[in-house]
Amino acid sequence: MTAVIITGGIDLSVGSILCVSAMVTGVVLHAGSSVWVGIAAGLAASLAVGLVKGVLITAVEIPPFVATLGMLSIARSLAMVASQNTMVYQFGPDHELFLWLGGGSTLGIPNPVVVLGACCVIAGFALNWTRWGARIMAVGGNERAAILTGLPVMRIKVGIYMLSAFMAGLAGVLEASWLGGVTTNLGQSMELSVIAAAVIGGANLTGGHETILGAVVGAALIEIIRNSLTLLGISTFWQGTFVGTFIVVAVAFDSVRKGRRNSTA
């Protein structure tokens, strides 16, 4: 999501893509395929959805909000079709191996944390130290100027939405493995938490330079807030209010800070 926001876009379909990736993986494993074939099928499904999103936004010029909102519904529907709206909890001959991927640990570190750390390091390096990252920053800074300088803006943006879908699909595989089952409501409303994490971490919804670390910190803060509210005995019905307030405050603070910077300039 951070890379998408850098380019001035938005992706409302990550929760549904998470679900369709997890469901495709579960269905393929349930049919008797190996764990690697199942995971590959789930990630391929998420990449396909990301490709469609990218083409709709760049070639057809549908606004990102509308295109990803439509894919939110389409991807969720595809997950229902793939499973006939039933829960998948038997993962074939590699059942135990699949459960270990999300629920096990490596050197005492939970596997999902290992994957998160690896993804953060790779994404951070790519955004800050590669030509690909520099091109993304250029598109986010001034898309018109990027086009005039000859950058393949359409191809870059399609790649960004495919990357967003791939990461959502990877999260879906890990979550299905951790939970030990997949239902069609998996990842519901998760897109709001993802956007909130990016915004609280310092992302500017109009685009520009952001950091992967900021998104991770934002996600951690959201979970700390939710857990703290639970420990304080505050009803879960109020948690959305607190998280939403933090988003508004973070955006307002960023706007005030930029306004002061522009006035002093």
What does this entry look like structurally?
The chain is mainly α and 265 residues long. The protein has 2 domains: 2-185, no CATH class; 189-265, no CATH class. 74% of the residues lie in helices and 2% in strands. It is built from 12 helices and 2 strands. Strand 1 and strand 2 (109-110) form a beta hairpin. The two termini are 31 Å apart. The relative contact order is 0.17.
What structural keywords apply?
265 residues; mainly alpha; two-stranded antiparallel ribbon; globular
Low-confidence stretches: none
- What is the residue-averaged pLDDT? 85
Order of helix and strand elements from N to C terminus: HHHHHEEHHHHHHH
Count all strands and give the number.
2
Distance between the termini: 31 Å
Which term fits the overall shape?
Answer: globular
Fraction of residues in helix: over 70%
Classify the secondary structure makeup into a structural class: mainly alpha
Q: What strand order characterises the main sheet?
A: 1-2
**Rg result:** 19 Å
Main beta-sheet strand count, sense and barrel state: 2 strands, antiparallel
Number of helices: 12
Q: How many domains make up the 3D coordinates?
A: 2
Strand content: under 5%
